[in-house]
Amino acid sequence: MTQDRHIKLGLILHGVGRTWDDWRHPDRDVRASTNIRFYRQQAQTAERGKFDFLFVADSLSINEKSSPHYLNRFEPLTILSALAASTEHIGLVGTLSVSYSEPFNVARQFASLDHISGGRAGWNVVTSWLGDTAANFSRTAHPPHHERYRIAAEHLAVVQGLWDSWEDDALVGDKEHGIFLDPAKLHRLDHAGPYFQVRGPLNIGRSPQGQPVIFQAGASEDGRDFAARHAEVVFCGPQDLEEAQTYYHDVKARAARLGREAGLPLILPGIAPIVGRTDADAERLYQELVGLTSLDTGLGFLSRAFSDHDFRAYDLDGPFPDVAAIGQQSNQSAAQRILARVRRGNLSIRQIARELATPRGDFVGGPQTVADALQRWVEQGGADGFNLFETLPGQLEAFVDLVVPILQERKLLRSDYEQTTLRGNLGLAYPVNRHAADKGKQAG
Amino acid sequence: MTQDRHIKLGLILHGVGRTWDDWRHPDRDVRASTNIRFYRQQAQTAERGKFDFLFVADSLSINEKSSPHYLNRFEPLTILSALAASTEHIGLVGTLSVSYSEPFNVARQFASLDHISGGRAGWNVVTSWLGDTAANFSRTAHPPHHERYRIAAEHLAVVQGLWDSWEDDALVGDKEHGIFLDPAKLHRLDHAGPYFQVRGPLNIGRSPQGQPVIFQAGASEDGRDFAARHAEVVFCGPQDLEEAQTYYHDVKARAARLGREAGLPLILPGIAPIVGRTDADAERLYQELVGLTSLDTGLGFLSRAFSDHDFRAYDLDGPFPDVAAIGQQSNQSAAQRILARVRRGNLSIRQIARELATPRGDFVGGPQTVADALQRWVEQGGADGFNLFETLPGQLEAFVDLVVPILQERKLLRSDYEQTTLRGNLGLAYPVNRHAADKGKQAG
């Protein structure tokens, strides 16, 4: 990859908000999660700020206790395709689960998005960690954690294989001789593995990026190995710079051991900046955010990470209970991170609940303060860039109008898009089609 | 439904063309099938002509012998979502196969499209008739014809059940009391059938149409029963008015026997008009179209309907061979239609091949001639409207500029959209949510 020192920036589009209570802000549209005008406005603002990509997360099951931003949301591929038509440069990255999708459908939808957007598609590969998702997909049980990553690896291999079905110049279009296609450049995949058997070829031609960009968010051991081996961009959720550095070093080292190109994968912590005109103004905004949150919400968040365990049964101000046996079926990495934070701060249930409901993080302050923190994280080996949550309404505009110009002045952010594709803007190489590569080897 | 006598109009978006050789026209972009600008332009032209909807067909397997318009194409949900952002009024209808999709994913994607487009989504339910599709989806065999319709009925029931997960007013959004959702108005489906087991609820709120519109194209006995029972709009492919009348009468009668509302389902034959400035000009354009076609193409088309049977083994100018045993695994209704046409015209292989490659149909002529034919089909009980293929490049514009004004003058076509939703413009009622209906019954 190129020696690009720019900070990579993504915007997480999440409708009503990041936390359970963000929707209660007076300026928040309670239907934002299915409001195309809101999404379009956010997308265009991020593009004005020269962000690399928009990111739409996903999940596949809800119940009446789910957080508002899970309850009601656009499906990622459809909203990203709509946003492709309303933007020109910004990347379009969506989550799609390998556990409940057919690789042929996944390959098509992202290739189609890549064509629609002129080369701006990215796939965030997830394995779906909520156990009750299986019940929405005619399955009796969710596959265990370790197996999910074996499925994921095979699923991804099939999708990437299908993306190479068409060599770059397979579509000939010779009208005079009636030759639409060079059949020697259209390839079956003939994949036959333990989980998937897929013949191919894909019924859509080679897309502008050759292969849409692969994103992933590995946190567990299996997840980090997967990220190091397969991802081009990795999302993570460190609580502070130290945790970010540890993760960054670990995943880059795993990737290096696997012989991957230096610099890969790019690592982008998720952050929730609160930008004020001054540090004091930002502090006031943070308190506004905390004011939206109830203790119930924090406890719900905690419970969710531990297989719906009820923490109200304990003294909320006493020591955190022994929950070693909990969380096997749930989000392992989230639970472990919470336990680490509790131990580090010797926190009560009440304290960790409030923190979970309204994480403060490192990025609360005036424009210079936030820009300094972003620069510090990147220069001190914690990040290649960031995946931004909007906290309060108007915060994306504040970031774009106040922080982006400072980063541009410091040459830490582009002043305009360098390339037409997401891959190009991220400094990732165009992938040579495996079939063309084979021929090259035979010729050489 | 309302007593709307307007002709319903759909435009089939098919990229490089309807037949195997349309792409060879000098003015046709050989990459039209993945060219977003071409799709956008077609969509906006159809909207200018006050068409009811755009339709994107689909198929799920190709090989190097497939027709150019099958080989390389956008995936329907993604391209329709992109077009939602580039249009304001026109409906957005896409094919999705029940044989190779999860009902939960289908329900979400169409509900999401319905939100994105402000209520313009329609689903064309198909069962996928190409036997080798199974090989792209980790299946060993394609289910037999009759079973596919049992799967389709259950799949559709699950999707429509999921669309009723949220009552219209389930999203409360009471910021003061922190009540996002009324949990009594969010419903699990708890479907447990022979093919699908789906708990729900769907993770996207009630969409503007309540339920996206159901399209279908039943031709076989099973298909017609399915259409009569479940479809709101039916596509068909009659060769002439007589065949259209027979089909129309048959499906409407089946629907009436099932107790469906009078007028349902709407029946829309697919037609391929060629509009000239005069009848003679249109004849010249038709010959231009025929000139693009090779005999090979016609034979390929024939072969495709009969399980890839090779008709070159016969005397092309002799009588049509006995193929009673062929076609069981393939498109039964297409094969039967071809055999009926061969018998009616006593055609040789060469003759039926040419006709298949360049069907002429009833809609070739000057503007008055084409408008008269459309009116005749509707007034004589052959159609409630039409699903249009563009034949030669520029033909959509010709239809919109020359034929549409005549239809409007005759009050056979709207001069502007009456409603904001596809359902509304087609004159279909807003479906009452089943859970609200249950409560209504209990209260009454």
UniProtKB/TrEMBL annotation, chains A, B:
Keyword Transcription, does the record have it?
Answer: no
Q: Which UniProt keywords apply?
A: Flavoprotein, FMN, Monooxygenase, Oxidoreductase
Q: Name one GO molecular function term.
A: oxidoreductase activity
In this chain the Luciferase-like domain maps to 27-382
Q: Which InterPro entries match?
A: Diverse_substr_monoxygenases, Luciferase-like_dom, Luciferase-like_sf, NTA_MOA
Entry keyword Oxidoreductase: yes
Pfam families associated with the record:
Bac_luciferase
Membrane spanning stretches: none
The EC code for this enzyme is 1.-.-.-
Q: State the family named in the UniProt similarity comment for this chain.
A: Belongs to the NtaA/SnaA/DszA monooxygenase family.
Q: What is this protein called?
A: LLM class flavin-dependent oxidoreductase
